[in-house]
Amino acid sequence: VKLVKAFSAPFKNAVATAKTCYSSKGIITDEQINATVEPLSRDMEIAKSIYEAGHHTTFQHAHFQFRIENVSRQFVWSFLHSHPFYNSEQVSQRYVEVKNKNYIVPPLNREAREVYQQTITQQMDAYRKLIDLLIPVTADEYYRIFPVRRKYFDKYSKEIKRKAQEIARYVLPVATFTYLYHTISGITLLRYHRLVNQFDVPAEQKLVVQNMVDELLRFDPLYKLILEESLPIEETLEYQFFSKRQDVKSSKGFIKEFDTKLEDKISKLIDYKVNNEKTLADSVREVLGLPVNEINDSEAIDLVLNPKKNHLFGESLVLSTHSKLMRTLFHPSYTFRKKLSHTADSQDQRHRMTPASRPILNSHLTDSPDYITPELIKCDDRIQRFYDEVMVKTWEGINKLKSLDVPDEFILYLLPNAFPIRFTESSDFLNLHHKHVMRLCYNSQEEIWRVSLEEAKQIKEINPNIGKYLLPPCTIRSIANSTPICPEGERFCGVKVWKLDTKEYNRTI
């Protein structure tokens, strides 16, 4: 962990912004703040006082950018990306091949360590074999889409391999290392530190967050004035619940019940506001100050959602939250019950404004293999059999570690990227619309594309005037007469999706 970018005087700035609220002499600058700690100056007393009173917006101004390397993808999914107040750019397993020995090794005794290493070695070997097995299948589908490119195999072989490794990564363990830039505000780092002892990966979380805090204090020691002790894991609600139910094992019953409720869907619409379209139309009229006899419900919804009329949808820069009319899209909302692989959900959760309640992962783990199978693997029986064998061997390793009484958090590192995350997600329509625009693009990861299409279709069934505008970016830009129609340039998927009805959408890679 290394702090690479920060405000020049972050703690002083928090006090300066607070004092500005009550200043009759204009803006208070950082240079005007007395940062004396011994004895404690009046300005530092103000800092402690506003922090303890919960007036934390002053601590949100200063942001800190960290360079973080050699952390597990399990940690990033469970902790760093499990809230909305951050920005990250991390290495992609879709486009960057994973190297051998690029994974976390927890503190284990000799016997458990051998089982752990052997299982991960099998997963890594399977990943490389799966890439080789998938390249011909991927190439057939790729050249079906781009037949002319078959003549230039050498030029496009790298792209084909990337698409194969995108699918092969499903067998990789969530122990796999990642590296990223991670930017957060001062108050978010304080929250990290306070609640660092929680499921699913408390040991790794504590190590990384302590490094982040150490970096912060080296840069600005004044934060010691408000840094609280970390809460013990025993004080968390989740720990207290499980400590009273140690003998209860209901994972299999929960999984069967959850999957039955999905009714063979990846994502099932389970709740929505009954007056979504009416409320949206009313709010459009309110913004414009018009009665219903001048603009009816269909016209009002069409005005704000039809890209032919609302040309802001054709912009590359997302302007929806800054448009008075488009803020009406906050009012409709939808809730989905979903089942995605760990790797697909890692992308889904990056849409921070479509929040979800994700599981304590150990409570979903059973002794039997449980995993998602990508569509491309289903295209070849031999590849499917190999994939299934890898999963069986992975669970053999997991169950051996269980028998050796290895702590749950270390066992979870062996879970494959394919492990299902079962959860519920809710969103207002404004943010869900943006998410679907991005993920209905044929270039998005296949599994998250498929789930977005399912959701769009279900919304269209119950709210047709709203749902008909859940479309990929090229289709929206085509309706808005924006050029180029496909904004991806040389990354064009090869399919003129804007000429298709959603019923015709189909893809394997």
**Low-pLDDT residue spans:** none
Assess the beta-strand content as a share of residues: 5-15%
The share of residues in helices is 40-55%
The biggest sheet, with number of strands, parallel, antiparallel or mixed sense and barrel status, is: 4 strands, antiparallel
Q: Compute the gyration radius: what is it?
A: 25 Å
- Number of DSSP helical runs: 19
Description of the structure:
It is a single chain. The protein starts with a strand and ends in a 30-residue tail after the last helix. The chain contains 19 helices and 8 strands. It has helices at 10-20, 42-52, 73-80, 110-145, 153-168, 186-194, 202-219, 237-243, 251-262, 276-288, 297-305, 342-348, 375-378, 381-403, 408-411, 429-439, 446-462, 464-467, 473-479, and strands spanning 2-6, 63-72, 87-90, 177-185, 267-272, 333-341, 356-357, 420-428. With 509 residues, it is of the alpha+beta class.
